[in-house]
Amino acid sequence: MTEIDPQTIRRRCHRALLMVGELHKRGYQKLRIAPTRHQLWRLVITPASNISAVDGSRLAVYEDPLQVVYTSGTGNLYFGWSDRTQANARELADTFVNRFPRVVEAARGRDWLYAGWYVEMLGLAEQGWFPYAYSDSDEGGLALDALEGSGVDLTKKPVLPLPPPGEHTGT
Question: Is 162 contained in some domain?
């Protein structure tokens, strides 16, 4: 098996984030992310109804049927799609809408606070800083980390506030 260079991994992870931004532009601003960082970077995409009303970076229900997962370990097989390996963010968004209609319907609506936060986060990810809410240390809150090969100055780590709270108020 050929090892993938870190820059390619970073571009693919960024493309997954850009896809969510594309979906926000299409009226699905209640689509949220809950990223994790263990050995791999993992992106859980779910409606705001599955995000904690206390901490906007945390899932409320871990096995919710309305969540979709991308992990850096799957490379360009976004969500297991072998027919979309060369797709750009807009094309991935088209496919996401077609293949996960229940998820996007549950995320339809305006959430300008979250969409604004998301744009700021995308800018940091473009620079090489990727968010995560869970990690091996699981200190809580939201953190940023440079994926391997990002080439960012680790002494100038930016600060990203928590995203706005989600809508899940139950246990």
Answer: no
